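From the thread on structure requests for the teaching lab: each student submitted one protein with a one-line request. Submission from student K.M.:

"Model alcohol dehydrogenase (NADP(+)) from Longispora fulva, tokens only."
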Amino acid sequence: MANVTAYAAPQAKAPLELTTVPRRPVGEHDVLIEIAYAGICHSDIHQVNEDWGTATFPMVPGHEIAGIVSEVGPGVTRYAVGDRVGVGCFVDSCRECVNCEAGEEQYCLGGMVGTYNGTGRDGGPTYGGYSTHIVVDENYVLGIPEGIGLDEAAPLLCAGITLYSPLKHWNAGPGKRVAIVGLGGLGHMGVKIAHALGAEVTVLSQSLAKQADGLKLGADHFHATGDPATFGKLAGSFDLIVNTVSANIDLNAYLGLLATDGTLVNVGAPEEPSPVAMFALIGGRKSLAGSMIGGIRETQEMLDFCAAHGLGAEIEVISGGQINEAYRRIQASDVRYRFVIDIATLNS
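Reply posted by the TA:
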């Protein structure tokens, strides 16, 4: 077992600091990845702050990982030294339940093993991508195609698949009217992917401040939800709405924007429950749903799709010493649209 340089939160709500964490030896089917870039996800902040329950510390966040294979175990067949690869939100699962067998490991009935703040099969804690290296079973590693930079690819491992999965599942494409609620780290990828799938895309944002960005990213329409008239004007307009906001919104109002048989899918995770009036669903045979990332097979499909369409995240690359400031800026909505850590700078 070797120690690697990393940024970790020593305890809940504490600033992240430079440290070292152990990595297991490369096993029979393991891949050692030299991490080049790690995206910062809003869920990293939630977990450091224990917003979603008791966490394990020290915590090395990061589940948007892109890098290069530097060593493989003797039984590895999928990857070779020098390959461009990524790691997303989980690094293992039971591999036996109906969901794992169906390629839906994110819904593993035994519980997927998180890339960080999880417990590995060896009983030890998992540490994420704010580090120089990571060891992962080859079955949970993704190939990053040529044609997309590792820096702009890193956020696809969470933000990209979080939007791709529901858009594909609910058949976004030609003839479908899709609305993306929120134009942030998740939402901006939703706009890009929905547009590439051929859907008519609308952004629903609190104000018109990001309208130019939304249209440039591929939206056909942009509306301010801070204007109450918007909800009357757009009533019954959408077949699919994907809500990326991690704060509570008036779900009943947004359900009113759906056409008959429309679906409102939530991918954001507010800390508090959201009330829903049953009549908002009954009138129009509407559905309220949720979606969480994707399995390994679908994540690889997403990466291939994004590379084929020239889609990467809109990023601001930062050094390791800027991580805590980036956290503050994310909470102030001061990023367009994803921070990515240049891991070569962890010591700076």
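TA comment: The radius of gyration is 20 Å. The CA atoms of residues 252 and 278 lie 9 Å apart.
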